[in-house]
Design a protein that fits this description.
The chain is of the alpha/beta class. The protein has two domains: 185 residues, Vaccinia Virus protein VP39 (Rossmann fold); 102 residues, DNA Methylase, subunit A, domain 2 (DNA Methylase, Chain A, domain 2), CATH 3.90.120.10. It contains eight helices and ten strands. The protein has a seven-stranded mixed beta sheet with strand order 3-2-1-4-5-7-6, sandwiched between helices. Strands 8-9-10 form a three-stranded mixed beta sheet, with no helix packed on it. β9 and β10 form a beta hairpin. α1 packs parallel to α8. The chain is globular, with a radius of gyration of 19 Å. It comes from Sphingobacterium psychroaquaticum. InterPro entries: C5-Methyltransferase (IPR050390), C5_DNA_meth_AS (IPR018117), C5_MeTfrase (IPR001525), SAM-dependent_MTases_sf (IPR029063). This is DNA (cytosine-5-)-methyltransferase. Keywords: Methyltransferase, Restriction system, S-adenosyl-L-methionine, Transferase.
């Protein structure tokens, strides 16, 4: 069986790419502009034993990179999301053009990209993604992490190929419950303002999930959880008011991150809250597994 090579752009901490590798792809390069993200990838050589680049895609020349069968793009979604509309930054950006500069010049057999469903409201962006000459394009939307994980996270996945192919849509295969991802003895440094939201000091009420309800699931993991853990909380009678935030490890599990994935910690061993941001910016590993397996079907 042929194992196609692949390069990732906007890799973050590589959650999506772990899944793509598990699905069968051979990653030869991961790239992200964030030094903290690539540092975490380098802390996990058991998942990333290929070239990891800390750089701005805008400054990367295509001709100086090793060619690959597949090019992967998961560029930032802030300016395409509903929350971006609320904060008046929902205007798209030019990063997609730099991704397609790489696709157009390198001309890989396959390209795959991921973003929020709100991106479809930008006709210029969607035209660039779906009308590139030489490529047959398949758009899957929404692809929900709930197919596999106890997290409601809808995404658009676009796959472009040089030959026409019948890619299969993902099917609901979820067996993991919210209770399954809970830590037995969670250790948390809960700031005093965490409980302010429950005392009416914020306009928005928290989303409370109950691990003992088999039908319960978490809302979409978001990057700003690193700054406000009071937006998504877990019922837990061992904590004040019977609630607590998700731990970093639980948040990672919601994205399908394996437990042997290493995150940096403070000197005392406690969790660094910025890890929530890196996790929230990621693409669920299970979506990568599905996409990787479908791409393997295409090549074989």
């Amino acid at each position: 069986m042929y194992k196609p090579t692949a390069k990732g752009y906007f890799s973050g901490i590589g959650i999506f790419e772990i899944g793509l590798q598990e699905g069968g792809l051979d990653l030869i390069q991961s790239l992200d502009i964030d030094k903290g993200a690539t540092k975490i990838m380098n802390m996990n050589p058991h998942y990333f034993n290929h070239k990891i680049v800390t750089a701005d895609i805008k400054e990367m020349r295509v001709s100086r990179q090793t060619a690959s069968d597949v090019v992967i793009g998961t560029y930032p979604c802030t300016k395409y999301s509903d929350i971006g509309d609320i904060h008046q930054v929902r205007n798209g950006d030019d990063l997609y053009l730099h991704f397609f500069r790489h696709v157009a010049i390198e001309s890989p057999e396959v390209f795959i990209l991921e973003n929020v469903p709100g991106m479809r409201k930008f006709p210029i962006v969607m035209e660039a993604m779906t009308k590139l000459p030489q490529y047959y394009v398949k758009v899957f939307c929404p692809v929900n992490a709930l197919n596999w994980l106890p997290q409601d996270r809808k995404r658009v996945i676009i796959i472009g190929t040089k030959k026409e192919f019948n890619f299969r849509s993902p099917k609901d295969a979820r067996i993991t419950t919210l209770k399954d991802i809970m830590e037995k003895d969670p250790e948390l440094d809960i700031p005093p303002n965490f409980y302010s939201r429950f005392n009416g000091k914020y306009r928005d009420r928290p989303i409370i999930v109950d691990p003992n309800d088999r039908n319960s699931f978490a809302p979409c993991c978001v990057a700003h959880y690193s700054k406000d853990q009071g937006t998504r909380v877990v019922k837990d009678s061992r904590f004040p008011m019977g609630i607590r935030p998700f731990t970093v490890r639980e948040y990672a599990r919601l994205q399908g991150v394996p437990d042997d994935f290493v995150f940096p910690t403070n000197k005392d061993g406690s969790a660094i809250k910025k890890n929530y941001m890196y996790i929230g910016n990621g693409v669920p590993r299970e979506i990568g597994i599905w996409a990787g397996r479908e791409i393997i079907r295409y090549f074989n």
